[in-house]
Amino acid sequence: MRILFLGDIVAASGRSAVIRCAPMLRQALKLDLLCANAENAAHGFGLTPKIAESLLESGLDILTTGNHVWDQPQIISYLEENPTAPILRPINMGASSRQLLPGRGYADLEISAGRKVRVINAIGNIFMQPCENPWYALEPLLRAGKFNATTGSDTQTAELDAIIIDFHAEATGEKLTLARLCDGRASALLGTHTHIPTADPCLLPKGLAYQSDIGMCGCYESVIGMEIETASARYLQSLPRAKLQPALGIASLAGVYFETSSATGCATRIEPFRLAASDDSLLRTSLPQECLPYKNELQGMIAATN
User: Fold this and answer.
1) Is residue 195 annotated as part of the catalytic site, yes or no?
2) pLDDT tens, 243-300?
3) Among 10, 11, 22, 148, which residue has the fewest nearby CB atoms (within 10 Å)?
4) What value, to the nearest 5°, has the Cα angle with vertex 288 and ends 285 and 294?
5) Which CATH code, of 1.10.560.10, 3.10.20.90, 3.40.50.300, 3.60.21.10, is assigned to 2-303?
6) Of 68, 168, 193, 195, catalytic
7) Per-residue model confidence as pLDDT tens digits over 112-142
């Protein structure tokens, strides 16, 4: 399978770029699945039902979130009324996964040719609000599918063709530790939350695609998507606290592209996906080869969003 996972969508510039480019990205990469983290899509904080629906209508299959999931209160009633909507909140959010929260932490999606993909959203504990240990919430969801192939046991009929984890966390050590625990039991564990794409996309020894942080879809002429001036004021002054505002410049897209084996469900390829409106952007464009013929047109779409 061919899968593109886009990093945190930040504010209007980020979501406009994603909405414009999603159909062409599906075509260029012949995607089986297109995902994105959307917890910052509403003016940099949270997600509204209207924005979620516009992203899904543009061609995204599922949206994940993180610590800002409840910042827009209307999403709470929306998830209560639409519990199977393709919008996830972290499965281990709160002191216990048994805590009753709106929405769900994972979804099994039926995609092309009858294949089934499990997408899981989890959140970290280090430098974040306390939550249940993410491993104990994840581990029961990793016991199905083709992922026994690396343990030496006989291959069984697949229940799941891929398992993808968005781990929304601050600390790289926590992300790497969880990735090692999931290696051979999932297709990919992808870090979100810090908005800065790391230079470590790799395949772990048992076939897990991993990147510490896949970046953001937003304005990189900023401080993680926020205005430089207000971010500087918050950093330099203790009181009063300046309210962060999303940067208004042209967005860039960042994420990760990976492929999985139909035989094992493990990843066979992973590449960074970074697309700026121009080649002199702060975020240097880096695309899978299949996307290169579409580069100029995609850059034009992004530039037109400002």
Assistant:
1) no
2) 889 999 999 999 999 999 999 999 999 999 999 999 889 999 999 999 999 999 999 9
3) 148
4) 75
5) 3.60.21.10
6) 68
7) 888 999 999 999 999 999 899 999 999 999 9
